[in-house]
Amino acid sequence: MRGILVRRRGAILLECLLALAIFVAAGLAILAYVDRASGSMTLTRDTLRAADLARTAMSRIEAGVASADTMSGPVRPEDEEESTLSAEAWELEVRSEPAGPQGLSRVTIRAIKRPSGGSDRELASFTLVQGVRLARRAER
């Protein structure tokens, strides 16, 4: 009788350990999924921010407030809504080239988010290409 009781206790312990292992494995799978979803949301947010920066730069060029030559480079802190203490830095690459006899120029604006510290790695980017009639002299 005592041997049957010991076997039954051992079986219950084994079932508990198996249930715990399944629970831990399921929890780790859920955490991995949440981590991937969080990374995807961050990339989407950064891509939308890059699109906003490129559109803002394009509208400044179209309005004649700035020229394509003066827009390239790091995004100034007063232009950026986020804290200047962040670990990433935004920059703009702006190019313009003649695009036809009507006085239009093809303006290409690329907004890029890079880790601070001068790394060439891109965390997010967005490229905007548009035909623009540039003002003769942009004033700031």
Widest sheet: strand order?
1-2-3-4
Number of strands: 4
Number of helices: 2
Mean pLDDT value: 84
How would a textbook summarize the main sheet?
Answer: 4 strands, antiparallel
Provide the helix percentage: 40-55%
Low-pLDDT segments: none
Please state the CA-atom Rg, rounded to the nearest Å.
28 Å
Number of domains: 1
Reading the helices and strands in chain order gives HHEEEE
Strand content: 15-25%
- What would the principal axes of the Cα set say about the shape? rod-shaped
Secondary-structure content class: alpha+beta
How far the N terminus sits from the C terminus, by CA atoms, comes to 95 Å
General description of the model:
The protein has one domain. 47% of the residues lie in helices and 24% in strands. Strands 1-2-3-4 form a four-stranded antiparallel β-sheet. The protein is rod-shaped and about 100 Å long. The protein contains two helices and four strands, in the order ααββββ. The protein is α+β, with helices and mostly antiparallel strands and 140 residues long. The chain has helices at 2-63, 68-71; strands at residues 73-74, 88-98, 105-115, 124-132. The longest helix has 62 residues, at 2-63.
